[in-house]
Amino acid sequence: MNLFEVIIPAYNCEETISKAVDALESSGLRDFSIIIINDGSTDQTEEKCLELVKRYHNIRYFKQKNKGVSAARNLGIRQSDAEYIIMFDADDIVDSDAFLNADHIIRQKKPDMLVYGMVFEYYYHEKLFRKQEMVYSWEGLLSEKDIQDHFCDLYEANVFTSSCNKIIRRELVVDNGVTYDESIFLMEDFLFSLDCIRFCKEIYMLKEPIYRYHHDEGNENVYKRICRIKSIVDYMTFFKIRLEGHSDVLSKVYYMMLRQKLWMAKMNKIRAIAQDHVRSDIPIYTKTDNELDCALREGKYAKIRCHNLILQLRHRLANTVKRMGLYQKI
């Protein structure tokens, strides 16, 4: 049995899957294997995966009909037999030897979960224009009490949002029946993280930005997915149970999703969103959230629409600057 198993869902990633796997093979992980799940790709992903299986001895390849990333990850968990699992996306990478310290800590401390930082790399027309590191402000072991006491800080540091910044004891996931919810299509990583963390006795926070997350500035997939949600108020049911006792985080999640849904909405859509919002009983903690709440309840739809149009104009101007090469890279 390997110590680590890296699970990679693969969907139409013919241009990136080889780079992701090559990065993992030189990442500093020892005693590990990789599971690739082809989620019904329609391009040359399968051919690329089979080439990788021939090149590296530690890769297992599976394929299924297109069921989504959650179903692919669940299959990967079922097929895994390692002590720890790591989620990895097919279009992301890590630097050479990036996992060396994490590997050492897992062997020494044996925590239920290890959380590391991420580097968000923002691209526009395939050109990198900005990087942003997100790491927790403290390094070391957190107990169950520490996790609850610092829950909001952990949320703000992106600890819960992604599955790809964690090394998780597989037994904890399997024995407690934790799976990715295949019925939802937005923030499924967040729910999976919350479900895992409530069974953790100890979490090790590693103050290193290991995972390099590729973000395409022109990609509107998140907005398209949130538009598929008929009622954000009803959607929050998935989060209320997991966030019981943490209403501040629940509020942050709700108003973040509300703003995303309003982002490009026209007047009739804003009206429908407002009618849904008035059913919400989620508390308000910030001045800006209170202002948005009042605007929706008081029917100030034109004000919301104008505000979003201004934000969109600023966004387009920023993209123009990037396209012209005038944006200073960080």
CATH architecture of the largest domain, by name, is: Alpha-Beta Complex
Overall number of strands: 10
Mean pLDDT: 93
Q: Tell me, what's the shape? A: globular
Helices, by number, come to 15
What do we call the CATH topology of the largest domain? Spore Coat Polysaccharide Biosynthesis Protein SpsA, Chain A
> What is the H/E order?
EHEHEHEEHEEEHHEHHEHHHHHHH
Oligomer: single chain
Note the main sheet: 10 strands, mixed
The count of domains is 2
Cα(first) to Cα(last) distance is 42 Å
For the record, the CATH class of the largest domain is: Alpha Beta
CATH superfamily of the largest domain: Spore Coat Polysaccharide Biosynthesis Protein SpsA, Chain A
Residue stretches low in confidence (pLDDT < 50, at least 5 long) are none
What is this structure, in a nutshell?
The chain is an alpha/beta fold. The protein has 15 helices and 10 strands.
Structure notes:
The protein is of the alpha/beta class. The chain has 2 domains: 4-216, Spore Coat Polysaccharide Biosynthesis Protein SpsA, Chain A, CATH 3.90.550; 221-323, no CATH class. It is 45% helix and 21% strand. Strands 1, 2, 3, 4, 5, 6, 7, 8, 9 and 10 form a 10-stranded mixed beta sheet that branches. β2 (32-39), α2 (45-55) and β3 form a beta-alpha-beta unit. α13 crosses α15. The chain starts with a strand and ends in a 7-residue tail after the last helix.
